[in-house]
Amino acid sequence: MKRFFEVAFALAYRQMTVLLKNPSLFIPPMLFPLMNFTAFAGGLSRLRHVPGFDFHGGYTAFQFVFVLLQSAAFGGVFTGFGIARDFERGFARRLLVSAPQRGGIIAGYAIAAFLRWSMIAIVLTAVGLVAGMQIGGDGVDLFGLYFLAVLFNQVGLLWACGVAMRFRSVQSGPLMQTPVFMALFLAPVYVQLDLLGGWIHAVARFNPFTFILESGRGFVQGEPTQVATAFALAAALLAVFAVWARAGLASAERSG
Q1: Closest to 163 in 3D by CA, of 109, 209, 212, 102
Q2: Where does the pLDDT of residue 18 fall: very low under 50, low under 70, confident under 90, or very high at 90 and above?
């Protein structure tokens, strides 16, 4: 167990060092959620006047939750890009040979994904507060919101990790990103679920992210809803993609 954590923390330290020394790897993931937040909360704010739209926290808070969860998921996905680059440059293959506890490799990338996203979350939260975001929830509610985001960050990382370790090339980037993008935007992004119509409503009703998103919005306005369902779904996704990532690690080991 000691060696497991040694591998995990050493790899996480290396990933963060590489990230901080190369701003080009960090700035796009930072700008992406900020641009979305500005576009959604600002440019689409009149949607709060749509008949039937009922969210006491205001449209800025409504969109903040989506962008926060989106940034968490893509924080994990962008770490997956780094895993693929590590394979292309030979570092990951050397790591597979030298690491005494290979399970610590996934844990190290998971820690790096969390730390990477934490910096984005701090900036995004500060921008939301400056923009006048109304927070109706108390400290417990906000802990629930950010904990959901952390779980979603790890789901994104484990999915991307499994893909990166199977293909071992940055050319697999679209495969890491596209399913996550589709899951996010086939949810009630701009208005509440009840206001959606047609096929998008039917898809959103069964999209696991819908429950996580609506629970997060309940936290921010101080009216938690579907909390047990949201956390159960997040835990289930974590379990499924943890198996996916471990299978990807086994595939990388077999490839030599």
Answers
A1: 109
A2: confident
Over 80: is that where the pLDDT of 81 sits?
yes
Q: Which of 173, 199, 204, 172 is nearest to 187 (CA)?
A: 204
Here the tokens at position 116 are: 């990477």
Residue with tokens 């739209």: 53
Residue-wise pLDDT tens digits, 120-147: 999 999 999 988 888 888 999 999 999 9
Cβ neighbours of residue 100 closer than 8 Å, sequence gap 6 or more: 3, 6, 7
Q: Which residues have C-beta within 8 Å of that of residue 9, sequence separation ≥ 6?
A: 108, 111
What token pair was written down for 211? 């429950």
Q: For the chain, what's the residue count?
A: 256
* Region class of 50: left (phi > 0), else alpha (psi between -120 and 50), else beta: beta
Q: What angle do CA 128, 20, 115 make, to 5 degrees?
A: 55
Q: Enter the tokens of residue 17.
A: 């060092």
Secondary structure (3-state) at 10: helix
Residue 125 near residue 69, CB atoms below 8 Å: no
CA distances from 53 to 45, 48, 103, 152, 194 (A): 12, 6, 47, 26, 9
Cα distance between residue 77 and residue 113, in whole Å = 8
Angle at 219 between CA 216 and CA 225, to 5 degrees: 80
CA atoms within 13 A on the CB side of 231: 10
End-to-end CA distance of the chain: 24
Q: What is the pLDDT at residue 256? A: 61
Q: Residue 203, Cα to own-chain centre: how many angstroms?
A: 21
pTM (two decimals): 0.93
